[in-house]
Amino acid sequence: MTEIRMKVNGDVEALDVEPRVSLLDALRERLGLMGPKKGCDQGACGACTVLADGMRINSCLALAVQYDGSEITTIEGVTHPLQEAFVRHDGFQCGYCTSGQICSAIGMLAEHEAGMPSAVADASPLTEAEVRERMSGNLCRCGAYNGIVDAIMDVAGKDGR
Fold it and tell me: Quick check: is 23 in a domain?
């Protein structure tokens, strides 16, 4: 067992974990945070997305010990205009992917603001095509993509659709 400390949603947490435990499992099983979901457990769906020191990560692919000393934010710790925008723009149906979508969108907006590149050629200001490309790691089985993009564009200060 390895002792790790991390700040999770504003609270310092000390955990004894085996080195092979994923951050997702530590958050869900040890801290009772059910927002990040175990969808595919292979980093392909984005349902487990959280913010680690402000950067979006797939927590199912991260080992908890890698984030010793880090600040982790799950949907339970988020207060962001995107939450209301998702409701306003019908950015969810069943809700399973929503926590990962919102955390990913927060990270994506920060990446764009910081000038981090994407596959869309110099899309500044933020365009719908760039939002779709940057959010492509988050899947929605219900197909609420248009509402998700509209919510993100709304918060980014655009007209949406």
Answer: yes
Single pTM value for the model: 0.94
In a domain, 93, yes or no: yes
User: Are 9 and 74 contacting, i.e. CB atoms less than 8 angstroms apart?
Assistant: yes
d(CA 13, CA 6): 5
Task: Return the number of other C-beta atoms located less than 10 Å from residue 124's C-beta.
Answer: 10
Determine the Cα–Cα distance for residues 132 and 28; give it in Å rounded to an integer: 28
- Are 105 and 126 part of one and the same domain? yes
The residue range of the domain holding 132 is 81-155
Closest by CA to 52, choosing from 95, 107, 2, is 107
Structural domain total, the chain: 2
User: What are the φ and ψ backbone dihedral angles of 63, each rounded to 5 degrees?
Assistant: -85, 140
- DSSP type of residue 125: S
Tell me the pLDDT tens digit for each residue of 6-58: 999 999 999 999 999 999 999 999 999 999 999 999 999 999 999 999 999 99
Residue 100 is assigned to a structural domain of this protein: yes
Tokens of 102: 């919102």
